[in-house]
Amino acid sequence: MYAAKFGVAQEKMITKLWGDNFFDPATKKWTSTQTDSPSCKRGFNQFCYEPIKQVINLAMNDNKDKLFPMLEKLGVLSKLKADDKELMGKPLMKRVMQTWLPAAIALLEMIVYHLPSPAKAQKYRVDTLYEGPLDDVYATAVRNCDPDGPLMMYISKMIPTADSGRFFAFGRVFAGRIATGSKVRIMGPNYVPGEKKDLFIKAVQRTVLCMGRKQDAVEDVPCGNTCALVGLDQFIAKTATLTNDDKADAFPMKAMKFS
After folding, report:
1. In which order are the strands placed within the sheet that holds 22-24?
2. Were both Cys, which of 3, 59, 172, 180 would link to 13 (CB 3.0–4.6 Å)?
3. How confident is the model at residue 133 (pLDDT cuts 50, 70, 90)?
4. pTM (2 decimals)?
5. Strands in the chain per DSSP E
6. Alpha-carbon gap, residue 161 to 144, rounded angstroms
7. 258 pLDDT exceeds 70?
8. pLDDT at position 171 over 70
9. Do residues 230 and 208 make contact, with C-beta atoms less than 8 angstroms apart?
10. CA 123 to mean position of chain CA atoms
């Protein structure tokens, strides 16, 4: 919309909406520094923040006489249902924002464009992930995100199932692959290498992918992915490291803290 208004390419317009770029409507000029003119404002504030703030305020104050014409210019009004237009206050604001700037799409785009892939990230994160020697086969497999290496999986959360009192063990595979029916060595948060405290060897009953509220059973899951496991909830309170049942020399992953 702004690219068409200023008669420039969309890619160029995007660069103007971030950083030290200021626009003065009075002179219709862009500058890299803010001038003394009261109408000179940062591009992001003027063309992104203020319109969003204005839409929210108009919706919260039920000022539909000004809100709807603005939404029509934004191409949002036609997407609202008749019942949506009858809403008032906060429900109206939420519906407008969900239609205009859905958070799911924005979040997914940020993940795709800005988060590094597991294959790239694990190369420089292995020293903060693994407790053992950084030159052993397990650290090497994590560093290379090697699906053919020894299994290294970190369980970060226990998710309640539909069955009362049972839980999925949810986590990420950092190396190797986790498979239904495979025996795994479970190293709990109190496990000390060389000792048997907080150490169990059990079989994975089922491997599932969490798709929203649904779970899809799969045969195995390679490294670089998250999944949930069935049948281990009696041996994991909250977090644990899983490896192959015969890998007695493996060290656990470092405890991860989530804000």
Report:
1. 29-31, 22-24, 41-42
2. 3
3. very high
4. 0.71
5. 22-24, 29-31, 41-42, 152-160, 167-175, 177-179, 183-187, 199-203, 206-211, 214-218, 220-222, 226-230, 240-244
6. 33
7. no
8. yes
9. yes
10. 20
